[in-house]
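Methods, example record. To illustrate the input and output format used throughout this study, we show the complete record for ATP synthase subunit b, chloroplastic. The sequence lines were provided to the predictor; the line carrying structure tokens was produced by it.
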Amino acid sequence: MKNVTDSFVSVGHWASAGSFGFNTDILATNPINLSVVLGVLIFFGKGVLNDLLDNRKQRILNTIRNSEELREGAIEQLEKARARLQKVEIEADQFRVNGYSEIEREKWNLINSTYKTLEQFENYKNETIHFEQQRAINQVRQRVFQQALQGALETLNSCLTSELHLRTISANIDMFGSMKEIMD
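The corresponding predicted structure is encoded as:
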């Protein structure tokens, strides 16, 4: 390091300080060239570097600002979504409660309707049984009446002589005649 500082400070040590020429000693000229180049870069590049850093800083700040705005928008949307979710959950609970009530009501309506239908079927069954019993009784009555009538006719035909037959006809004619006089 001492050689580098000596090359800048002690210009009097150079024998050819008064003449112009090329110094071929690489170790002595490199630090000088580097320092000159760095000095020029720092002097002229300082503004460009500051501009680049300022642009980069502005981009980072804009990105942070946009991220904050997006974050606030996301938080706002999240709050709205939570509010909607809470509202929907309340409505779902109400629908669930109302649905259960409606289901219970429909169940009881169905049970009552089924009970009424069963009652009607029971009444129809009883009416049908009563009707069939009456029909069977009427059929039995008709048979009994037919058999009694047939037996009476057979008895009449076997007992009835022509004289008895004429007397019965005249008695019936007289009876109808008297009924006609009463009616007139």
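Annotations derived from this record:
The longest helix spans residues 26-159.
Residues 1-14 have pLDDT under 50 and may be disordered.
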